[in-house]
Amino acid sequence: MTDPFVPLERFKQEVTSITLVNNTAKTQDITVPQGERWVLLGVKMANGDDVTRDVSCMVYKEAAKTNLLKSLFYYAAVGAGSIRLWPSWPSGGTSGAFIYQTHLIVLDPGNTLSCIWATGGASTGAVDADGLVVEYLKVEI
Q1: Which pick of 46, 72, 78, 125 has the fewest CB atoms within 10 Å?
Q2: Per CATH, which fold does 13-140 belong to?
Q3: How far apart are CA 37 and CA 135, in angstroms?
Q4: How confident is the model at residue 93, as a pLDDT?
Q5: Is the pLDDT reported for residue 134 higher than 70?
Q6: Where are the domains of the chain?
Q7: Quick check: bond before 4 cis, omega within 30?
């Protein structure tokens, strides 16, 4: 059943192809455009490489990433081919993991979601067609 208060055209699923390169960190930034506000619903990061990598996702006030607003998660030693999800991935038992506990995160124009795949050592690299997925509700202001 469709919620009449949330028009479906406001629900967005941004899918980004991620290319990981031998022993090289990857940062993918997504900035909320002017005239929009986002209600962040979920983030998926995939380690498509053949080595273990740390992954993290932070929210900054601006595209220059000067002011850190919050850290959504940091996971150490994410195995090859594994994914991490926010907010539904359990934090128990995962080394170096924490999850920002608020389920409603509003991003203002200019706020930047910064997703980072740390270096993982010598690897063959990889391309993952949906290595980053960000789900949100777009609210025009």
Answers
A1: 125
A2: Jelly Rolls (2.60.120)
A3: 13
A4: 45
A5: yes
A6: 13-140
A7: no
